[in-house]
Amino acid sequence: MTEPTAPLGWHHLVELHGCDRAALDDLPRIEAALLAAARAAGATVLDARFHKFAPQGVSGVVLIAESHLSVHTWPEHGYAAVDLFTCGVSLDAEPAVALLQAALGATSTSRQAIPRGRSAG
Length: 121
Description:
The chain is α+β, with helices and mostly antiparallel strands. The chain has helices at about 20-25, 25-40, 95-105; strands at about 10-15, 45-50, 60-65, 65-75, 80-85, 110-115.
């Protein structure tokens, strides 16, 4: 079997620190931000599901035709972890990350883009 020369997809891992704690615990705000981020990346939104935890925190996933966008928040730490996984296409993660930074009030952000489906050797 021949290994692909280009990745089958990209997995963007985004760490948002120093976020507004109230924003991180606001399910409607998180949902709106994640849906807007998916659209800003150029993704085709298919479905979404979000859950509010007690006493705090929100997790959610947006199913996109290109794969998925997910978020997990820790209001007590001012932190959100975001994954944007795309397969078969290159979406523009930059506007999505910028939108989430602004929507959650992040003071610092780090990001990794990992190729998926490519031979390690």
